[in-house]
Design brief:
The structure is a single chain. The chain contains 11 helices and no strands. With 197 residues, the chain is mostly helical. It folds into 2 domains: 30 residues; 164 residues, Orthogonal Bundle (Flavocytochrome C3, Chain A, domain 2). The protein is globular. The N and C termini lie far apart (61 Å). Bound molecules: heme C (HEC) (4 copies). One heme C binds next to helix 5 and helix 6.
Amino acid sequence: MTKSRISLFSLFIATAYLISVFAAGSVDANGGGATYVGSKKCKSCHNSAKKGAQFKSWAKSGHANAYKTLGTAEAKEVGAKLGVSDPQNDPKCTKCHVTAYNVDAASLGKKYKKEDGVGCESCHGAGSNYMKKKDMAAISLGKVEGSSLGLTVPDEKLCTSCHNSESPTFKDFKYEEKLKKINHPMPDDYKSSKGYK
Ligand code: HEC
Ligand code: HEC
Ligand code: HEC
Ligand code: HEC
């Protein structure tokens, strides 16, 4: 190869690498290099009754127990049929039962815990870039687009990325019905007192 060909070739490799890095990032929906901070971080600002106690609501939902579930006798039985001997440590199960089951250690904050199961960030995106109080308030006021800081708006498609027939215990999924069971809205009077939509 001539010199210019070699440099063209390295440019090609570098571009391919960058594209693969961006593609991997979007699969994890982790807001451009954001790290997963863990549900306890969100708790510090999202647990008062006045604001809707989102943490309490999550903590008593099945999602908070999704990792623990994989340690039960029932899970072992379900796993055995699929050749999985340790559900809590097998990506065939953790892919839907644990937040950020497949990311590099570098993308996990100090408070991230797999024991959180399906945590806040499974539905709202990795938190490190959007969780500053000032930014969060600006998002709720409609002054900043949440997605620009990695905050995702959870929709039916997100739910059915886990609630589908690939789940060995799947029966059905009726969005409106299931949403009611995990709903954690801010109270209307709180919203209007702050000028949120
Ligand atoms: C990352 C995967 C994942 C996503 C995304 C997800 N879930 Fe779940 N969900 C689970 C798992 C796993 C369980 C079972 C937890 C357990 O019992 O250990 C569950 C349980 C539930 C339950 C309680 C059991 C039941 O079927 O009644 C409800 C309700 C529910 N999810 C609703 C939703 C809704 C609504 C959405 C979307 C807004 C959603 N989930 C998104 C993985 C997910
Ligand atoms: C495609 C996503 C997905 C995968 C993969 C998955 N699960 Fe689940 N799991 C769910 C969801 C969603 C629920 C709650 C609703 C349901 O049963 O579909 C659940 C519920 C469960 C339950 C509770 C069942 C009940 O009736 O309350 C057990 C036990 C379980 N899963 C074990 C496993 C094991 C073991 C594996 C790996 C072999 C696994 N799951 C893989 C999504 C998944
Ligand atoms: C330092 C405080 C703080 C932390 C930490 C924090 N938030 Fe917030 N968050 C807020 C504030 C303030 C608002 C604006 C609404 C309000 O007044 O409660 C908000 C709003 C939101 C909203 C609504 C956005 C909208 O579109 O209106 C979501 C969703 C949210 N936070 C999720 C999270 C998640 C998930 C975490 C953890 C990864 C988190 N927050 C961590 C302070 C915080
Ligand atoms: C299974 C998915 C799921 C999980 C887990 C989850 N959320 Fe949510 N969250 C939603 C959905 C769906 C909405 C409603 C979005 C909408 O109104 O468009 C929502 C809305 C919110 C809002 C805005 C409420 C409003 O009235 O505007 C806040 C704040 C919030 N979530 C915080 C959290 C926190 C904190 C956690 C963890 C303790 C958490 N969420 C866990 C799915 C989830």
